[in-house]
Amino acid sequence: MLAAKLPKLETVEVVEEPIPEPGKGEVLIRMKASALCRSDLHRYHGTQIFDEDESACYITPGHEPCGIVEKLGEGVTRVKEGDRVAIYLGLGCGTCPDCLKGDVMVCRDFRCIGFAVNGAHADYMTIPEENCLLMPDEMDFITGALATDVGGTLYTACKKLELNGTKTVAIFGCGPMGSGGILMAKGFGARVIAVDTDEKRLALASEIGADYVLNPAKGDAVAQIRSITNGLGADASIVTAGNNAALNSALDCVKAKGIVGQIAECNSATIDPSNQFLRKMIDLKGCWYFNRSDWEELAEFIVNKPIELKKICSNTYPISEAETAFRLFDSGKVQKVVFVWDD
C-alpha cells in the first residue's frame, strides 16, 4: 500500500508499506477520504503539538479520515466488514472518567492518530473499533472526513456558545475551521459576522452564508460589529485564527456576559483581563474536538440541515500526489485539501 511520510523538515515522501493487520479489538480501514489539517503542517514544518519523539518521522500523518471497514481483528463485535465509518482521532486510557464519558481528548494519556500512531494519509490504517463512527447512508465520504475535526469541533463550539436564531456570533478567521464555523452557526440559526483580512476567504464566507463580512485591514472590525449589533456587541465570538489580534478582537467585540470560544492553536497571547474579561463578566471557553458519544447527533445535524461541508473542500488528490497536496495546502491559498480514493 501507499503511505505518506514526513521524514524530514518540509519533505513529503510516498512509500510502499505492507497492509497492516488489525490486532485484538482493532479493525482495518480501507481509506476513502482523508483531509489535510493545519496540525499536519505543524509536523511538516517541524513544530511539535504533542509530545512527539524522533520516531515521529516514521509515523503516517492524517487524523481527519473516513473509509470502509475491510477486516476485523479478534474480539471485534460492534462494527462489521463493509461498514462506512468516520474515525475519531483520540486514543485514551479507556478507563478514566473522561474516557468513560466520551471526552477522550482530555484524557491524561491522550494520543492522536497521525502523531502517536500511524494515521490516515495511506491506503489502509488500523484503529480500535471504538474509534469507528458509523456514517449515515446519506453522508458522502468527503463530508464524512470533514465532519470530524472541522464539523465536530465547530458543532460543539456552537453548542457551548448557546447559539440559536436570536444570537449574533462573530467568527475571526475564515480558513477551513472558520468556514466550518460559519456553516455550523448558520445551521443553529445564528446571525454570522465573518472577519478576515483575505478577500478570497471573505468571498467564500459570503457564499456559504455569512450575513456580514468584515476586513479589519480596511476598517475597525470591532467598531463595525458594535454598529451591526446596535452598540451592544455580539452575543458570542469564535476564534479560529491563531494570533493575538484575533483573540483580542474577539474579546472586545462581545457584549457584557457574552461568550468567546477559542479554537485556534495559540501558544501565547496578551489580553487585558480587567477590561476584556472581568468587568464584562464574559465566559472564555476552550473548544477542542467533540465528545465521541455526540457523533450520531452531530451526523444527523449535518445530514438533516443540511450542512454543506463539501463547500470548504478546495482540492482533492490521490495519495500518490501527497507532496503536491501538502505544498498547496501550506500556501494558505486554499481551504481544505482532501486525499480521496476511488473504487
Automatic annotation (TrEMBL):
<keyword id="KW-0862">Zinc</keyword>
<dbReference type="Pfam" id="PF00107">
    <property type="entry name" value="ADH_zinc_N"/>
</dbReference>
<dbReference type="GO" id="GO:0008270">
    <property type="term" value="F:zinc ion binding"/>
</dbReference>
<protein>
    <submittedName>
        <fullName>Alcohol dehydrogenase catalytic domain-containing protein</fullName>
    </submittedName>
</protein>
<dbReference type="GO" id="GO:0016491">
    <property type="term" value="F:oxidoreductase activity"/>
</dbReference>
<dbReference type="InterPro" id="IPR020843">
    <property type="entry name" value="ER"/>
</dbReference>
<dbReference type="Pfam" id="PF08240">
    <property type="entry name" value="ADH_N"/>
</dbReference>
<keyword id="KW-0479">Metal-binding</keyword>
<keyword id="KW-0560">Oxidoreductase</keyword>
<dbReference type="InterPro" id="IPR050129">
    <property type="entry name" value="Zn_alcohol_dh"/>
</dbReference>
<feature type="domain" description="Enoyl reductase (ER)">
    <location>
        <begin position="9"/>
        <end position="339"/>
    </location>
</feature>
<dbReference type="InterPro" id="IPR013154">
    <property type="entry name" value="ADH-like_N"/>
</dbReference>
<dbReference type="InterPro" id="IPR002328">
    <property type="entry name" value="ADH_Zn_CS"/>
</dbReference>
<dbReference type="InterPro" id="IPR013149">
    <property type="entry name" value="ADH-like_C"/>
</dbReference>
<dbReference type="InterPro" id="IPR011032">
    <property type="entry name" value="GroES-like_sf"/>
</dbReference>
<dbReference type="InterPro" id="IPR036291">
    <property type="entry name" value="NAD(P)-bd_dom_sf"/>
</dbReference>
<comment type="similarity">
    <text>Belongs to the zinc-containing alcohol dehydrogenase family.</text>
</comment>
